[in-house]
């Protein structure tokens, strides 16, 4: 997204650019990209007004005056292609004189000419995607960039005329840096991360880029809400307004603490919006900045580093977007109002907001109001709040068919069935089950399975706590059985414990491993348990017997065995060993021969090994055992996510740099119903967890 004065720009149909003039209410459509537009930026000057758009295959600069004239004459407007095949572009920025364009593509920054196709400089050194870059206005040929990397190159200052690195900071935070702004008045830079933290660094030559301030927006937001609540005011409108907490540590029951990613930092034209006010709020020398987050807009006072105003998206019933994926703001106010562009995190929807800063401040600060009127404005009506400082527009010609509906999680989802038969007989499910057998299985399973009550809050308080051993012992893995009746946990003391789900009794204790147990997995019929250990062995246990039914010794594996689980409705066993995972077939026989007690009657055979691409070690594995599925997901130490098709017997897709850190957990939607036909929708979504957070993936698009 991008905003400038009376214009806003956003992609339509992924690869088409729409530039909308708010004053003329006239959209201008520009075509020139074949792939999805991933970054936009307006030029620094008004005459001529330039806009740059970037996609995977090209970077284009458009002169809006020339494009408008071409459209009026009946011709197709064309832009200047200044770069091709640079990769996935996350951010672009014009220089102050609009002569150069900084393009952040992957781990590199390209400084391109805005007039023709020429690369002026290539700046590398970041170890992760560069998320933002800004030109320094008072010092020529200086460029500042921030990145998602976790190295000491998290923030860089460049002399792009010679492509030399002037300064690199140490590690700033454990979370990706997402946004950046240069404060020309105070000669500082402001950067924000994905966890709601702001850092301000001095750019004065003899200050050595020292940190001036660190602001925790979550705490500042709580302090501001308490301050407004104590003054008798409330932010919100209508019956479903958001109530402010009375104390810093008080949160509504059932609420879940979330991150507060800083999507945007922009100058706030504060005093221009108060040119008609008799009482000026603060000194004219004070700087104010907009902070755009996923939940709303904030205004920060750089004189005291405190929050001055807060606008929450969810407080407006006419605004369909409550969680923002990205946002853009105009730097200069027009008619004492600021233009804001917001796109939804979960829907294909864009909203244009017009924020009246003076009205916003009056609703949240008693300094702007006579005390006699305070009571009448303590609760603001819905339509009055929108009329005061927010107007919502939807551009004509932009498709918007999504209606405001509550998010509903249905407790029953029907399986849609096979669309094609499996390609290998090894993975052909048994379709000869009688209807009575299937119906009987469904009935018994339905009685045992427990469904999470939809009206309940997310579990945020523990119900019970027990000590599993006499001395402190790390627990490396836990897993519920399919019916939720039993809980298995693997421990560092080489044992596997099985508890009742309410933790009232120890159901069984399995011992025999010579190393810490790192994974446990239940069979589909809940009669067997598979465990792997640091001793490079695999064991299968009967829930009713303390002796292992199957032992696969360390001579079979060259490295530690991890992530062992049953697969394909207990037909196979999957496990990881180093940078590859193994597919094993097995047969369990618990009968005993008095003459050959020492001989194991159960057998296990290796079917095939599947190595990951360019990974030293597999850090997580996930496959569905609840129904017939031939998809296996792995994550590696190279931070990649890989999809394997065991029908084809090979890797089918690789998602490079899925996270900034190595993925340590993959969770698939494993469905909820038994079927002799494969569900289509089970594998549409999956979640991955790493040190930088949790991501939800759509396997149809691998995004």
From TrEMBL:
This is WDR27 protein. The keyword Transmembrane does not apply. Gene3D superfamilies: YVTN repeat-like/Quinoprotein amine dehydrogenase (2.130.10.10). It comes from Promerops cafer (Cape sugarbird). InterPro entries: Quinoprotein_ADH-like_sf (IPR011047), WD40/YVTN_repeat-like_dom_sf (IPR015943), WD40_rpt (IPR001680), WDR27 (IPR042411). WD repeats lie at residues 510-543. Keywords: WD repeat. SMART domains: WD40 (SM00320). It comes from the Eukaryota. The gene is Wdr27.
């Amino acid at each position: 997204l991008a905003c400038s004065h009376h214009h806003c720009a956003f992609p339509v149909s992924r690869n088409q650019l729409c530039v909308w003039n708010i004053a003329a209410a006239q959209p201008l459509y520009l075509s020139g990209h074949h792939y999805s537009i991933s970054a936009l930026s307006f030029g620094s000057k008004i005459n001529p007004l330039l806009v740059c758009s970037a996609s995977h295959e090209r970077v284009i600069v458009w002169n809006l005056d020339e494009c408008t004239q071409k459209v009026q004459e009946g011709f197709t407007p064309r832009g200047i292609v200044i770069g091709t095949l640079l990769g996935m572009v996350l951010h672009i920025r014009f220089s102050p004189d609009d002569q150069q364009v900084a393009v952040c593509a992957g781990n590199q920054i390209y400084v391109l000419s805005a007039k023709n196709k020429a690369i002026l400089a290539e700046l590398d050194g970041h170890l992760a995607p560069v998320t933002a870059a800004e030109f320094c206005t008072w010092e020529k040929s200086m460029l500042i960039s921030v990145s998602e990397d976790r190295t000491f190159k998290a923030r860089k200052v460049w002399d792009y005329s010679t492509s030399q690195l002037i300064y690199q900071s140490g590690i700033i935070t454990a979370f990706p840096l997402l946004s950046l702004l240069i404060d020309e008045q105070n000669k500082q830079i402001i950067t924000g991360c994905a966890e709601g933290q702001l850092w301000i660094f001095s750019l004065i030559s003899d200050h050595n880029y020292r940190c001036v301030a660190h602001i925790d927006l979550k705490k500042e937001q709580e302090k501001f809400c308490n301050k407004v609540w104590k003054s008798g005011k409330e932010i919100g409108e209508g019956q479903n307004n958001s109530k402010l907490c009375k104390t810093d540590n008080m949160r509504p029951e059932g609420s879940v603490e979330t991150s507060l990613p800083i999507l945007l930092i922009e100058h706030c034209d504060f005093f221009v919006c108060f040119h008609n006010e008799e009482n000026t709020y603060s000194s004219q020398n004070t700087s104010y900045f907009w902070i755009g987050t996923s939940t709303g807009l904030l205004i920060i006072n750089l004189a005291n580093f405190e929050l001055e105003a807060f606008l929450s998206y969810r407080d407006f019933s006419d605004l369909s977007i409550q969680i923002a994926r990205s946002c853009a703001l105009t730097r200069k106010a027009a008619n004492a109002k600021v233009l804001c562009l917001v796109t939804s995190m979960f829907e294909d929807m864009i909203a244009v907001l017009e924020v009246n800063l003076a009205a916003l401040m009056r609703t949240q600060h008693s300094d702007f109001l006579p005390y006699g009127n305070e009571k009448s404005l303590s609760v603001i009506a819905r339509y009055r709040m929108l009329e005061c400082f927010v107007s919502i527009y939807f551009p004509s010609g932009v498709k918007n068919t999504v209606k405001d509906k509550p998010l509903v999680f249905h407790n029953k989802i029907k399986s849609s069935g096979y669309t094609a038969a499996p390609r290998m007989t090894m993975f052909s499910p048994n379709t000869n089950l009688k209807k009575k057998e299937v119906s009987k299985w469904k009935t018994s399973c339905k009685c045992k399975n427990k469904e999470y009550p939809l009206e309940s809050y997310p579990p945020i308080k523990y119900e019970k706590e027990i000590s599993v051993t006499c001395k402190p012992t790390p627990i490396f893995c836990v897993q519920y059985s399919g019916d939720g009746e039993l809980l298995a946990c693997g421990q560092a003391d080489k044992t596997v414990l099985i508890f009742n789900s309410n933790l009232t009794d120890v159901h069984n204790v399995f011992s025999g491993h010579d190393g810490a147990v790192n994974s446990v997995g239940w069979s589909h019929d809940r009669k067997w348990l598979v465990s792997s250990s640091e001793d490079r062995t695999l064991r299968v246990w009967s829930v009713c017997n303390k002796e292992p039914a199957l032992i696969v010794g360390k001579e079979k594996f060259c490295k530690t065995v991890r992530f062992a689980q049953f697969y394909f409705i207990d037909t196979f066993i999957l496990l990881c060993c180093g940078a590859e995972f193994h597919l094993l077939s097995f047969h369990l026989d618990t009968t005993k021969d008095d003459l050959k007690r020492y001989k194991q009657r159960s057998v296990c055979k290796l079917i095939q090994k599947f190595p990951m691409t360019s990974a030293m070690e597999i850090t997580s594995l996930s496959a569905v055992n609840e129904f017939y599925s031939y998809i296996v997901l792995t994550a590696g130490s190279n931070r990649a996510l890989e999809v394997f098709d065991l029908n084809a017997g090979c890797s089918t897709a690789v998602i490079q740099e899925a996270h900034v850190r190595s993925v340590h957990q993959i969770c698939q939607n494993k469905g909820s119903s038994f079927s002799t036909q494969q569900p289509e929708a089970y594998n549409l979504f999956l979640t991955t967890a790493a040190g930088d957070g949790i991501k939800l993936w759509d396997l149809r698009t691998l995004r």
